[in-house]
Design goal:
By secondary structure, this protein is an alpha/beta fold. It has helices at about 15-20, 30-45, 60-65, 70-95, 120-125, 145-155, 190-195, 200-210, 225-230; strands spanning about 10-15, 50-55, 100-105, 115, 130-135, 160-165, 170, 180-185, 185, 215-220, 235-240. The protein has a single domain, classed as Carbamate kinase (3-Layer(aba) Sandwich). The chain is built from nine helices and eleven strands. The strands form two sheets. It has a nine-stranded mixed beta sheet with strand order 4-3-5-2-1-6-10-11-9, with helices on both faces. A two-stranded antiparallel ribbon has the order 7-8. The radius of gyration is 17 Å and the shape is globular.
């Protein structure tokens, strides 16, 4: 077991669907799933209760489809189904890594996943199971960012960790703007007013109302998940109220 000590007892990890595609840009890369499972296993060994919300953009993006003429509600439901596919793929990989999991879907499909029941999800976490929340909120017009904020509040997570491909929050996209500056800590209001796209506005507002911090870190660097869970001040950026970032 690692000598690191966890800063948080219960977290929600927000993963994008695109992260599962790896370099191929579409679909699911088994190598990415394997690496992700090992990262999650590392924090599980520290008894960190871990819930996961995963997107579906590697398979289908409802908003993009609606912008190209598809009915928005139908497109969003299709996107939710894509998150279930990703959730099942992640579940299988985690279980091969020796972890106990449960996948709960906001859309009723008992043949493949449990229905989302808040108290049952909390009990799974207490028993040391990794809980994957699929199908977003179960409603169109809401993103998986909002689903992550909602589920984190519902299950009593201490923080949302949003995994990205950059090492925190920047004044602009650092992959496009070489003058972008990393911001180690900002407030909810700053994130909203400056349009930094940490999460969508509904998700940030929900976190602000419930004083739920948001951590943003680079998932592509091995060991970073363990570092942020352990409170390493050199990794990631945080959104919270006017108090210092959680460490």
């Amino acid at each position: 077991m690692s000598e690191a000590q966890p800063r948080f007892k219960r977290i929600l990890l927000k993963l994008s669907g695109e992260a599962l595609a790896g370099e191929q840009g579409y679909g699911i890369d088994p190598a990415v799933l394997e690496r992700l499972a090992q990262e999650i296993r590392t924090i599980h060994e520290l008894r960190v209760q871990t819930a996961i919300v995963i997107g579906g953009g590697n398979i289908f993006r409802g908003l993009h489809a609606s912008q190209n003429g598809m009915d928005r509600a139908s497109a969003d439901y299709m996107g939710m189904l894509a998150t279930v596919i990703n959730g099942l793929a992640l579940q299988g990989t985690l279980e091969r890594a020796g972890l106990m999991t449960r996948c709960q879907s906001a859309i009723d499909m008992p043949a493949v996943a449990e229905p989302y029941i808040r108290r049952r999800a909390i009990r799974h976490l207490e028993k040391g199971r990794i809980v994957i929340f699929a199908a977003g909120t179960g409603n169109p017009f809401f993103t998986t960012d909002t689903a992550a904020a909602l589920r984190a509040v519902e299950v009593g997570a201490e923080i949302i960790f949003k995994a990205t491909k950059v090492d925190g929050i920047y004044t602009a996209d650092p992959l496009k703007d070489r003058n972008a500056v990393r911001l180690p800590h900002i407030t909810y209001i700053d994130a909203l007013n400056r349009g930094l796209r940490v999460m969508d506005t509904t998700a940030i507002s929900l976190c602000m109302e419930n004083k739920l911090p948001i951590g943003v870190f680079n998932l592509n660097i091995p060991g970073n998940l363990l570092r942020v869970v352990s409170g390493d001040p050199t990794v990631g950026s945080y959104v919270s109220d006017s108090a210092p970032a959680p460490r």
